[in-house]
């Protein structure tokens, strides 16, 4: 198993969101080469603006581990986390975040600029399967405009 494999699993989650007419963002959390949590956007389904893929995956991981910290875990998410999700990830102390597509409109970098909103020990990587992650978003919004 490698980063690409796990990002493809996050894309499976994003496709679930797409199929349910949610903004197609998916996430998985991996610990010791095992997926311990999955999440996809469920904002419309749950009528909850905080029901982002990352938040759902974090809650699932915390429950699975019985812990509020994820120092040794990696989050794979298809789109750059927003400021809300970045804050939750900060508090989780997650060890690593890998995201696919940059989100110019709603991603954390729009607000945080050159200052990382994540825990100082968190490693950030982006651009993995960026085209696939980005295309799912483009397809979703193109469909919505019809």
Automatic annotation (TrEMBL):
The keyword Metal-binding applies. Its cofactor is Zn(2+). The active site is at residue 54. Pfam families: dCMP_cyt_deam_1. Keywords: Hydrolase, Metal-binding, tRNA processing, Zinc. InterPro entries: APOBEC/CMP_deaminase_Zn-bd (IPR016192), CMP_dCMP_dom (IPR002125), Cytidine_deaminase-like (IPR016193), tRNA_aden_deaminase (IPR028883). It catalyses: adenosine(34) in tRNA + H2O + H(+) = inosine(34) in tRNA + NH4(+). Binds 1 zinc ion per subunit. Residues 1-111 form the CMP/dCMP-type deaminase domain. GO terms for biological process: tRNA wobble adenosine to inosine editing. Its EC number is 3.5.4.33. GO terms for molecular function: tRNA-specific adenosine-34 deaminase activity; zinc ion binding. Belongs to the cytidine and deoxycytidylate deaminase family. ADAT2 subfamily. Homodimer. NCBIfam families: PRK10860.1. This is tRNA-specific adenosine deaminase. The gene is tadA.
């Amino acid at each position: 198993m490698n980063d690409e494999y796990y990002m493809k699993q996050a894309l499976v989650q994003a496709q679930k969101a797409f199929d349910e007419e949610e903004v197609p963002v998916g996430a998985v959390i991996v610990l010791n080469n095992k997926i311990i949590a999955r999440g996809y956007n469920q904002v419309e389904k749950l009528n909850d603006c905080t029901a982002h893929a990352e938040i759902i995956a974090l809650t699932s991981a915390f429950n699975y581990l019985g812990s509020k910290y994820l120092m040794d875990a990696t989050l794979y998410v298809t789109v750059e986390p927003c400021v809300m999700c970045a804050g939750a990830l900060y508090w989780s102390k997650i060890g690593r975040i890998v995201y696919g597509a940059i989100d110019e409109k709603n991603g954390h970098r729009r607000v945080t600029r050159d200052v990382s909103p994540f825990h100082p020990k968190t490693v950030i990587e982006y651009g993995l399967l960026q085209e696939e992650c980005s295309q799912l978003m483009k397809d979703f919004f193109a469909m919505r405009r019809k």
